[in-house]
Amino acid sequence: MHQSTYGKSLDLPPLCAAERLFIWGFRAKARSGSAVPTAADIQQVYDHFRVGDAVPSLESIIEIFACTAHTAIEVHCPTCPKMSDSEHGILRAIAAAQQERIDVAREQFESWLPPVGADWALAPVRGLATIFRMAGLILPDRHVRSFDHDRTMAMKSWLVGSPTLH
Fold it and tell me: For the packed helices 115-134 and 55-68, what is the interaxial angle rounded to 10 degrees?
């Protein structure tokens, strides 16, 4: 995992609940080989927030990255309080998809994926974005392309017993 030594102060707004939930799920699914959280934990947390149907979309997005990426993405462990530029870019793409700005989402995915991979990613991205929106979990469009590596998030455990971002 990347540990930044960059010490600039932060002036960005904190992540909203929808962003924290998405990033935790993305990180957890991307690291599915580790013991915690388990697939059942991820499903339980997403079910708790009424977005359990988004888990297959998460899996598809990660599989597309694993099979087609021409550039590595930096994904931290689920409990890391720091966000990578890659994770911010993925949030930007999901937020754009929620707003039906598919061209912005596709452009973001093309920074890591070939054009065909970006096209493949759009269906699960749109599905996940719709499921989150229908549950009232709206990801804000922050209009920022590159974020500070030292942006932090406080961690806590949800009542369902799985460690998540708070």
Answer: 160
